[in-house]
Design brief:
16% strand; globular; alpha+beta
């Protein structure tokens, strides 16, 4: 998973989470847009399916590795039950030459919503998402079955041992 460096800070009796910003290089701002901003969507309302996010990533970045990273983020969110996977949690960065790239992943934590459904659906489903649903989504994008299966297997393998990372 492409993420910025992060760690926990102990301050007195409190522990805080901190992460390096991806929208800055030194003191310079990097041009960034969240998906919510790009499509003028209210992040408080379910607005997209991961298929659209994957296609948007392909069209905007023209980079297969970015597409695979978006797919990996989807699989991870499903595996850890991050149902708060709304359109403000996916962003793109533009470099000085005008090229777009998928921003590093952020806001990845287990979050089960009251409706018990993902904010961003998978193959039209907000809950009860299966490996088959994720493979169906891959099939509708430029992701091969072998790439999809490799990502699904790897993510679920790591998540199954999540307690080792605490």
């Amino acid at each position: 998973m492409n993420m910025m460096e992060s760690r926990l800070f102990d301050v007195g009796d409190n522990t805080f989470f901190g992460t390096r910003r991806f929208d800055r290089i030194g003191n310079e701002r990097v041009h960034m847009h969240s998906v919510a901003n790009l499509i003028d969507a209210n992040f408080r309302e379910p607005a997209l399916d991961y298929e659209t996010l994957c296609k948007m990533t392909s069209m905007l970045t023209k980079n297969h590795q970015d597409l695979l990273m978006m797919y990996r983020i989807m699989v991870f969110n499903v595996a850890i039950e991050n149902q708060d996977d709304h359109v403000k949690d996916f962003s793109f960065l533009m470099d000085d030459s005008g090229e777009w790239r998928l921003a590093p992943a952020y806001d990845l934590t287990q979050s089960i919503l009251a409706a018990n459904e993902h904010s961003t659906s998978v193959a039209g489903k907000g809950s009860g998402i299966t490996h088959q649903d994720m493979l169906k989504l891959a099939n509708s994008t430029a992701i091969t079955a072998s790439e999809a299966n490799e990502i699904i297997d790897r993510v679920y393998d790591v998540v199954s041992d999540a307690e080792a990372y605490e």
